[in-house]
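Journal club prep, notes for RB
We'll compare a predicted complex against what the paper describes. Inputs for the flavin mononucleotide case:
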Amino acid sequence: MKVCIVYESKYGNGKKCAEYLQSIIKAKGYDVDSFSIREIKPNLLPEADFYIFSSPTHIGSIPWKMRRFLKKIKPKSEAKYALMTTCISLDTKVIQKMEEILNKKGMIKISEIKIKVKGMKGPLEEKYKEKLDAFVEEIFI
Ligand SMILES: Cc1cc2nc3c(=O)[nH]c(=O)nc-3n(C[C@H](O)[C@H](O)[C@H](O)COP(=O)(O)O)c2cc1C
């Protein structure tokens, strides 16, 4: 199974989570790539069986760059996905907003996770690795 992690990260916290996710998914024996939306065009996103999309929370919602990127991707229909956001407050609409865009494409949501940051620029909450371990265990049994 091919896994593709796609993230936006302004200060590097989401990037750190994406890198950790990639390492633990790879250790489980999956073929996994990771891309920042700043380094790949949406139409060139590789085909995958499972996507993980990660975005920071900005003003309670999804940053415009991530929204624009997700609207432009053309994954194969019925590709599965999971969502991640980094946020200061758990009261975030990012997951819901990303889900609305992706479900319209016929994709199937499997899971979601919110990772807290302690301030605008981080750092990540202490238990972020444990939370990501559990997230991956739940998805890739
Ligand atoms: C313009 C801006 C608006 C933000 N608004 C919120 C917000 O409404 N709620 C929240 O929980 N965090 C908010 N944050 C903090 C982000 O959640 C935090 O910067 C992000 O999770 C860090 O991840 P990154 O290092 O991957 O960018 C905001 C950050 C920025 C830059």
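Talking point for the session: The longest strand covers residues 108-116.
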